[in-house]
Specification:
Number of helices: 14
CATH superfamily of the largest domain: Aldolase class I
Distance between the termini: 26 Å
CATH architecture of the largest domain: Alpha-Beta Barrel
Order of helices and strands: EHEHEEHEHHEHEHEHEHHHHHH
Number of domains: 2
CATH topology of the largest domain: TIM Barrel
CATH class of the largest domain: Alpha Beta
Strand order of the largest sheet: 3-2-1-9-8-7-6-5-4
Radius of gyration: 20 Å
Length: about 325
Protein backbone atom coordinates (compact mmCIF):
# COMPACT_ATOMS: atom_id res chain seq x y z
CA UNK A 1 0.00 0.00 0.00
CA UNK A 2 1.23 3.47 -0.91
CA UNK A 3 1.77 5.55 2.20
CA UNK A 4 -0.33 8.46 0.86
CA UNK A 5 -3.38 6.31 0.08
CA UNK A 6 -6.61 7.99 1.22
CA UNK A 7 -9.88 6.10 1.57
CA UNK A 8 -13.30 7.74 1.43
CA UNK A 9 -16.57 6.13 2.48
CA UNK A 10 -19.01 6.55 -0.40
CA UNK A 11 -22.49 8.00 0.10
CA UNK A 12 -25.21 5.35 0.03
CA UNK A 13 -28.61 6.90 0.46
CA UNK A 14 -30.73 5.30 3.15
CA UNK A 15 -27.71 3.73 4.87
CA UNK A 16 -24.69 5.97 5.47
CA UNK A 17 -26.37 8.68 7.53
CA UNK A 18 -24.59 10.49 10.36
CA UNK A 19 -25.42 7.83 12.97
CA UNK A 20 -24.12 5.04 10.74
CA UNK A 21 -20.99 7.01 9.82
CA UNK A 22 -20.03 7.72 13.43
CA UNK A 23 -20.48 4.12 14.57
CA UNK A 24 -18.82 2.72 11.46
CA UNK A 25 -15.80 4.97 11.96
CA UNK A 26 -15.50 3.92 15.60
CA UNK A 27 -15.77 0.19 15.00
CA UNK A 28 -14.00 -0.18 11.65
CA UNK A 29 -10.90 2.02 11.26
CA UNK A 30 -9.36 2.66 7.87
CA UNK A 31 -11.44 5.36 6.22
CA UNK A 32 -10.00 8.87 6.26
CA UNK A 33 -13.24 10.66 5.42
CA UNK A 34 -16.79 10.22 4.17
CA UNK A 35 -19.00 11.81 1.55
CA UNK A 36 -22.51 12.30 2.90
CA UNK A 37 -25.58 11.25 0.88
CA UNK A 38 -26.90 14.11 -1.22
CA UNK A 39 -29.33 16.75 -0.07
CA UNK A 40 -31.51 18.71 -2.45
CA UNK A 41 -31.31 22.50 -1.97
CA UNK A 42 -34.58 24.42 -1.64
CA UNK A 43 -34.35 28.09 -0.72
CA UNK A 44 -37.84 28.44 0.63
CA UNK A 45 -38.31 24.99 2.12
CA UNK A 46 -40.11 24.90 5.47
CA UNK A 47 -37.93 21.88 6.30
CA UNK A 48 -34.56 23.58 6.02
CA UNK A 49 -33.48 22.54 9.54
CA UNK A 50 -34.47 18.93 8.81
CA UNK A 51 -32.69 19.14 5.48
CA UNK A 52 -29.28 19.72 7.05
CA UNK A 53 -29.80 17.59 10.17
CA UNK A 54 -27.56 14.81 8.84
CA UNK A 55 -24.73 17.36 8.58
CA UNK A 56 -25.01 19.11 11.93
CA UNK A 57 -21.51 19.32 13.46
CA UNK A 58 -22.58 17.73 16.73
CA UNK A 59 -23.72 14.62 14.80
CA UNK A 60 -20.53 14.36 12.76
CA UNK A 61 -17.72 14.34 15.27
CA UNK A 62 -14.59 12.28 14.82
CA UNK A 63 -14.73 11.81 11.04
CA UNK A 64 -14.14 14.31 8.26
CA UNK A 65 -17.38 14.59 6.25
CA UNK A 66 -18.10 16.43 3.00
CA UNK A 67 -21.71 17.39 2.20
CA UNK A 68 -23.08 16.57 -1.24
CA UNK A 69 -25.68 18.62 -3.12
CA UNK A 70 -27.89 17.46 -5.97
CA UNK A 71 -29.29 20.33 -7.99
CA UNK A 72 -29.08 22.29 -11.22
CA UNK A 73 -30.48 25.60 -9.97
CA UNK A 74 -27.51 27.80 -9.19
CA UNK A 75 -29.29 30.12 -6.74
CA UNK A 76 -30.74 27.26 -4.69
CA UNK A 77 -27.35 25.57 -4.71
CA UNK A 78 -25.64 28.71 -3.45
CA UNK A 79 -28.25 29.22 -0.75
CA UNK A 80 -27.63 25.84 0.83
CA UNK A 81 -23.87 26.07 0.27
CA UNK A 82 -23.89 29.24 2.38
CA UNK A 83 -25.89 27.48 5.09
CA UNK A 84 -23.35 24.64 5.15
CA UNK A 85 -20.52 27.16 5.30
CA UNK A 86 -22.18 28.68 8.38
CA UNK A 87 -22.11 25.21 9.95
CA UNK A 88 -18.35 25.10 9.47
CA UNK A 89 -17.93 23.15 6.23
CA UNK A 90 -15.15 24.26 3.92
CA UNK A 91 -15.97 22.03 0.94
CA UNK A 92 -19.06 20.64 -0.75
CA UNK A 93 -19.55 18.12 -3.51
CA UNK A 94 -21.77 18.45 -6.58
CA UNK A 95 -23.51 15.22 -7.53
CA UNK A 96 -23.20 14.58 -11.27
CA UNK A 97 -23.33 10.82 -10.88
CA UNK A 98 -26.64 9.69 -9.38
CA UNK A 99 -28.08 7.06 -11.76
CA UNK A 100 -31.62 6.84 -10.34
CA UNK A 101 -34.13 7.30 -13.19
CA UNK A 102 -36.29 9.65 -11.09
CA UNK A 103 -33.22 11.89 -10.82
CA UNK A 104 -31.76 11.58 -14.32
CA UNK A 105 -35.07 12.33 -16.05
CA UNK A 106 -34.96 15.76 -14.39
CA UNK A 107 -31.46 16.35 -15.82
CA UNK A 108 -29.85 15.97 -12.41
CA UNK A 109 -27.07 13.65 -11.33
CA UNK A 110 -25.69 11.72 -14.31
CA UNK A 111 -28.71 12.97 -16.26
CA UNK A 112 -26.91 16.27 -16.75
CA UNK A 113 -23.81 14.75 -18.36
CA UNK A 114 -25.27 14.76 -21.91
CA UNK A 115 -25.66 18.55 -21.52
CA UNK A 116 -22.11 19.90 -20.99
CA UNK A 117 -23.05 23.49 -21.83
CA UNK A 118 -25.47 23.53 -18.90
CA UNK A 119 -22.77 22.18 -16.60
CA UNK A 120 -20.39 24.95 -17.69
CA UNK A 121 -23.07 27.63 -17.26
CA UNK A 122 -23.81 26.33 -13.78
CA UNK A 123 -20.14 26.42 -12.78
CA UNK A 124 -19.70 29.91 -14.26
CA UNK A 125 -22.56 31.13 -12.09
CA UNK A 126 -21.74 29.27 -8.88
CA UNK A 127 -17.97 29.24 -8.51
CA UNK A 128 -17.35 33.01 -8.29
CA UNK A 129 -19.87 33.25 -5.43
CA UNK A 130 -19.26 29.97 -3.64
CA UNK A 131 -17.93 30.44 -0.06
CA UNK A 132 -16.42 26.92 0.03
CA UNK A 133 -14.37 24.63 -2.19
CA UNK A 134 -16.20 22.50 -4.75
CA UNK A 135 -15.57 18.90 -5.78
CA UNK A 136 -17.57 16.81 -8.24
CA UNK A 137 -18.72 13.18 -8.13
CA UNK A 138 -19.64 11.84 -11.53
CA UNK A 139 -19.87 8.89 -13.92
CA UNK A 140 -18.51 8.24 -17.39
CA UNK A 141 -21.76 9.50 -18.85
CA UNK A 142 -25.47 8.80 -18.86
CA UNK A 143 -25.70 6.67 -21.99
CA UNK A 144 -22.27 7.11 -23.62
CA UNK A 145 -18.83 6.75 -22.08
CA UNK A 146 -17.44 9.73 -23.97
CA UNK A 147 -19.69 12.27 -22.26
CA UNK A 148 -17.38 12.86 -19.30
CA UNK A 149 -14.32 12.40 -21.52
CA UNK A 150 -15.44 15.35 -23.65
CA UNK A 151 -16.38 17.45 -20.62
CA UNK A 152 -13.14 17.12 -18.65
CA UNK A 153 -10.94 19.29 -20.94
CA UNK A 154 -13.52 22.08 -20.64
CA UNK A 155 -13.10 22.01 -16.85
CA UNK A 156 -9.36 22.61 -17.04
CA UNK A 157 -9.37 26.19 -15.76
CA UNK A 158 -12.09 25.76 -13.14
CA UNK A 159 -11.02 25.62 -9.44
CA UNK A 160 -12.48 22.20 -8.71
CA UNK A 161 -10.75 20.55 -5.75
CA UNK A 162 -11.16 16.99 -7.08
CA UNK A 163 -13.28 14.88 -9.41
CA UNK A 164 -14.56 11.51 -8.20
CA UNK A 165 -15.22 9.19 -11.13
CA UNK A 166 -17.38 6.08 -10.92
CA UNK A 167 -16.50 4.05 -14.00
CA UNK A 168 -20.02 3.15 -15.11
CA UNK A 169 -22.72 4.86 -17.12
CA UNK A 170 -25.75 6.22 -15.34
CA UNK A 171 -27.95 3.97 -17.47
CA UNK A 172 -26.12 0.93 -16.07
CA UNK A 173 -27.12 1.78 -12.51
CA UNK A 174 -24.86 -0.71 -10.67
CA UNK A 175 -25.03 -3.48 -13.25
CA UNK A 176 -22.15 -4.77 -15.32
CA UNK A 177 -18.49 -4.10 -14.71
CA UNK A 178 -16.46 -0.95 -14.34
CA UNK A 179 -15.03 0.33 -17.63
CA UNK A 180 -11.42 0.68 -16.55
CA UNK A 181 -10.22 1.66 -20.02
CA UNK A 182 -12.69 4.56 -20.17
CA UNK A 183 -11.60 5.61 -16.67
CA UNK A 184 -7.97 5.59 -17.84
CA UNK A 185 -8.90 7.82 -20.78
CA UNK A 186 -10.54 10.30 -18.44
CA UNK A 187 -7.51 10.22 -16.21
CA UNK A 188 -5.33 11.08 -19.19
CA UNK A 189 -7.26 14.20 -20.22
CA UNK A 190 -8.00 15.72 -16.80
CA UNK A 191 -5.83 18.32 -15.09
CA UNK A 192 -7.64 17.87 -11.76
CA UNK A 193 -7.04 15.48 -8.88
CA UNK A 194 -8.98 12.31 -9.66
CA UNK A 195 -10.53 9.92 -7.14
CA UNK A 196 -11.33 6.36 -8.22
CA UNK A 197 -14.74 4.92 -7.31
CA UNK A 198 -16.38 1.60 -8.13
CA UNK A 199 -16.21 -2.15 -7.49
CA UNK A 200 -13.53 -2.23 -4.79
CA UNK A 201 -14.89 -5.26 -2.97
CA UNK A 202 -11.76 -7.07 -1.79
CA UNK A 203 -8.15 -6.34 -0.93
CA UNK A 204 -7.20 -8.12 -4.16
CA UNK A 205 -9.46 -5.73 -6.12
CA UNK A 206 -7.71 -2.76 -4.56
CA UNK A 207 -4.21 -4.05 -5.21
CA UNK A 208 -5.10 -4.80 -8.81
CA UNK A 209 -6.50 -1.30 -9.36
CA UNK A 210 -3.63 0.34 -7.50
CA UNK A 211 -1.24 -1.40 -9.88
CA UNK A 212 -3.22 -0.30 -12.92
CA UNK A 213 -3.63 3.32 -11.80
CA UNK A 214 -0.42 4.17 -9.89
CA UNK A 215 -1.08 7.94 -9.94
CA UNK A 216 -4.35 7.59 -8.00
CA UNK A 217 -3.86 8.33 -4.31
CA UNK A 218 -7.48 8.65 -3.20
CA UNK A 219 -10.08 5.91 -3.46
CA UNK A 220 -13.79 5.85 -2.68
CA UNK A 221 -15.41 2.63 -1.45
CA UNK A 222 -19.11 2.05 -0.88
CA UNK A 223 -20.87 -1.27 -1.36
CA UNK A 224 -17.64 -3.23 -0.81
CA UNK A 225 -17.29 -1.72 2.66
CA UNK A 226 -20.89 -2.56 3.56
CA UNK A 227 -20.37 -6.18 2.54
CA UNK A 228 -17.04 -6.31 4.40
CA UNK A 229 -16.76 -3.53 7.00
CA UNK A 230 -13.11 -4.48 7.59
CA UNK A 231 -12.08 -3.79 3.98
CA UNK A 232 -10.64 -0.32 4.58
CA UNK A 233 -8.63 -1.68 7.49
CA UNK A 234 -7.32 -4.51 5.32
CA UNK A 235 -6.17 -2.01 2.72
CA UNK A 236 -4.46 0.10 5.37
CA UNK A 237 -2.87 -2.93 7.00
CA UNK A 238 -4.81 -2.57 10.25
CA UNK A 239 -4.98 -5.90 12.07
CA UNK A 240 -8.30 -6.99 13.58
CA UNK A 241 -8.42 -9.96 15.95
CA UNK A 242 -12.06 -10.33 16.92
CA UNK A 243 -13.97 -9.40 13.79
CA UNK A 244 -17.22 -11.09 14.70
CA UNK A 245 -17.27 -9.45 18.13
CA UNK A 246 -16.67 -6.02 16.55
CA UNK A 247 -19.37 -6.54 13.95
CA UNK A 248 -21.83 -7.73 16.57
CA UNK A 249 -21.15 -4.69 18.74
CA UNK A 250 -21.58 -2.36 15.78
CA UNK A 251 -24.88 -3.92 14.79
CA UNK A 252 -26.21 -3.81 18.34
CA UNK A 253 -25.38 -0.13 18.79
CA UNK A 254 -26.81 0.74 15.37
CA UNK A 255 -29.97 -1.22 16.16
CA UNK A 256 -30.40 0.53 19.51
CA UNK A 257 -29.77 3.92 17.92
CA UNK A 258 -32.36 3.46 15.17
CA UNK A 259 -34.83 1.85 17.56
CA UNK A 260 -34.82 5.07 19.54
CA UNK A 261 -34.84 7.42 16.55
CA UNK A 262 -37.23 5.77 14.13
CA UNK A 263 -40.98 5.47 14.53
CA UNK A 264 -42.33 1.93 14.53
CA UNK A 265 -40.81 -1.45 13.81
CA UNK A 266 -41.64 -1.30 10.09
CA UNK A 267 -39.45 1.78 9.74
CA UNK A 268 -36.74 0.24 11.91
CA UNK A 269 -36.65 -3.06 10.03
CA UNK A 270 -36.81 -1.31 6.67
CA UNK A 271 -33.69 0.71 7.49
CA UNK A 272 -31.75 -2.29 8.77
CA UNK A 273 -32.74 -4.49 5.83
CA UNK A 274 -31.12 -1.99 3.48
CA UNK A 275 -27.83 -2.63 5.28
CA UNK A 276 -28.31 -6.41 5.32
CA UNK A 277 -28.72 -6.45 1.55
CA UNK A 278 -24.94 -5.94 1.55
CA UNK A 279 -23.91 -7.26 4.96
CA UNK A 280 -25.37 -10.69 4.20
CA UNK A 281 -22.20 -11.26 2.13
CA UNK A 282 -20.38 -11.56 5.45
CA UNK A 283 -22.61 -14.49 6.46
CA UNK A 284 -22.49 -17.20 3.79
CA UNK A 285 -24.46 -18.55 2.08
CA UNK A 286 -25.29 -14.95 1.24
CA UNK A 287 -28.56 -15.48 -0.61
CA UNK A 288 -29.96 -17.69 2.14
CA UNK A 289 -29.02 -15.14 4.78
CA UNK A 290 -30.54 -12.27 2.85
CA UNK A 291 -33.80 -14.15 2.24
CA UNK A 292 -34.14 -14.87 5.97
CA UNK A 293 -33.55 -11.22 6.89
CA UNK A 294 -35.89 -10.00 4.17
CA UNK A 295 -38.75 -12.15 5.49
CA UNK A 296 -38.59 -10.73 9.02
CA UNK A 297 -41.80 -8.89 9.89
CA UNK A 298 -41.33 -8.22 13.59
CA UNK A 299 -38.56 -6.77 15.71
CA UNK A 300 -38.55 -9.88 17.89
CA UNK A 301 -38.09 -12.21 14.92
CA UNK A 302 -35.38 -9.98 13.49
CA UNK A 303 -33.37 -9.89 16.71
CA UNK A 304 -33.69 -13.65 17.14
CA UNK A 305 -32.50 -14.30 13.58
CA UNK A 306 -29.54 -11.92 13.86
CA UNK A 307 -28.37 -13.56 17.08
CA UNK A 308 -28.64 -16.97 15.40
CA UNK A 309 -26.56 -15.75 12.45
CA UNK A 310 -23.81 -14.47 14.74
CA UNK A 311 -23.88 -17.68 16.78
CA UNK A 312 -23.63 -19.84 13.66
CA UNK A 313 -20.78 -17.71 12.37
CA UNK A 314 -19.00 -18.04 15.71
CA UNK A 315 -19.37 -21.80 15.64
CA UNK A 316 -17.82 -21.96 12.17
CA UNK A 317 -14.97 -19.61 13.14
CA UNK A 318 -15.92 -16.93 10.61
Amino acid sequence: MHKTTELVLAPIRGITDCYFRQLFHRYFPGFDSALAPFINPQRFSHFQAKQVKDLLPELNQGMCVTPQLLHTNAEDFLFLASRLHELGYTEINWNLGCPAPMVTKKKRGSGLLPHPDEIITFLDTVLPRLPVKLSIKTRLGLNRNDELLNLLPRLKDYPISEIIIHGRLGSQLYRGTIDQDAFAECLGVSSHSIVYNGDICTLADFKRLEGKFPTIQKWMIGRGALANPFLAGEIKGIATKERLKQLHGFHQELFDCYRELLSGQAHLLGRLKQLWFYLSDFFPPQQKTWKKIKKCKTEEKYRQLVEELFQEASNTSL
